[in-house]
Amino acid sequence: MSNFVDYVKIHCKSGHGGAGSAHLRREKYIPKGGPDGGDGGRGGHVIMRGNAQEWTLLPLRYTRHIKAERGENGAKSQLTGADGADIYIDVPIGTIAKNEEGEIIGEILEDKQEITLMLGGKGGKGNEHFKSSTNQTPRYAQSGMDGEEGFVVFELKILADVGLVGFPNAGKSTLLASVSAAKPKIANYAFTTLTPNLGIVDYRNYKSFVMADIPGIIEGAAEGKGLGHRFLRHIERNSILLFLIPADSESHFQEFKILENELTEYNPELLDKDFIVSISKADLLDDELKKEISSEFPENRKPLFFSGVTGEGLVELKDAIWKKLHG
């Protein structure tokens, strides 16, 4: 799992609270000054914070432990100990934090949003709090409370306008590289893309949209086969889906139906999204073959043809995407 920057597991520990002071005031002219011990400071919290400048969990990939400061102990003259410094974990927008049982602690939906993952321990009360008519000089104070600790799992569901959906080798990386400045790895073998790549696609009149090259899925992904759920999760947050069926597929419509079925099995609501069907690697086809392939699809699912290598059909594809996004 460490190979995937969309999933990071970190052991987190908030700070212990500082101990209260049991100091008794003793001054030259006040021999029986009584208790004046201050409270301990609280321990530092562990806080997840949204950062719009981050796109992946890669900065956290090699972080194994995060620990906040403990609170300082109370002191004489009713001085409260300083609180331990909070520690912040900056994550991209769209990150979900879960505890070891898989329960969601919180989800970052906007820049600078903060969610406290682990509370620092409360500081102990100093002995001045325990003074009473029957005990004028209490010689005890509270210890600080322990902080919390445990593993936190961070998961990122990619935020993008367009999510590319297709089997390995469908041409998703080639498309992204041809319409944006993204530089995904491109090779002719399964699961070239092990982490989602994001690209900003320039459109007409200085407009743009975000395209995500989602790692390829295989038949049975919804049951967890192959790299399964890890990849399907990324599709959930895309505004529209762009299905890519390669021109050299043995059965174009059948491949589309398999992809559609995987999404339905995983989460039926995904098919409520707008989506576009396309045939990649169109430079391999002549007009007659394009007509033949197009005839396989029903009228409301007619595919667009494009080639990320030659640039054929890319303008029309971007127009169709923009119309779906803003139509």
From TrEMBL:
GO terms for molecular function: GTP binding; GTPase activity; magnesium ion binding; ribosome binding. Residues 2-159 form the Obg domain. The keyword Ribosomal protein does not apply. GO terms for biological process: ribosome biogenesis. It comes from the Bacteria. Its EC number is 3.6.5.-. Coiled coil: none annotated. Pfam families: GTP1_OBG (PF01018), MMR_HSR1 (PF01926). This is GTPase Obg. It comes from Chryseobacterium carnipullorum.
